[in-house]
Records
---
Amino acid sequence: MLPGNGNFRNIVKDTNITSDEALERFDLNLNQLCTCGIPAEEMEYKMKELSTLSAWLQEALEKGETMQSLQPRASKLAKLAFELGCCREEVEVLMTIYPKM
């Protein structure tokens, strides 16, 4: 759960989420992370937080968004990941999003 967001729900358990809801959650939590960062004592969990953001992009894609429409958000996520000290391989994992066939 991202700090300070009491309305956060695990996307895996939230089966009725729409693409708009997934993108809204992505935007709110990405903005919070960009503004507040991750406290030093929680940095070991940064990939968990960033992976949740990636999962929201995946969910939006599965609910009808296009890769092109998600590109600006994916770029913001990658930038934040690098700013938080992720290596190239970690960022590649975050950016690996597959459209359903």
---
Amino acid sequence: MIKFERYPHINDLLSHYAESLNNQRAEHILENGVSNKQEAKEFSVFVWQVVDAMHEDEENNISVLGSTDNIEMIPDLEYEISSYMKSTGFFNIWVEVSESA
């Protein structure tokens, strides 16, 4: 299971959006971790879908994790994902997906 320690609220954020976006691949990856290039790409794409969904929820005044303004979590999200992807050896895929997002 992927567990973010420095900013543990990111665990809840990603779980929420995996469920609300009905992204079973993301749920699987969150549960089991990234183990290959394809999963690294899928997970990276999902993270950017989360960012888009966060913006949309804020614009529509939708409460997520008790707040209608979760945009301030984006730096925490970027830190945790970057650190995690470095630890898996797939940081380059995170960068590639991020540059094309």
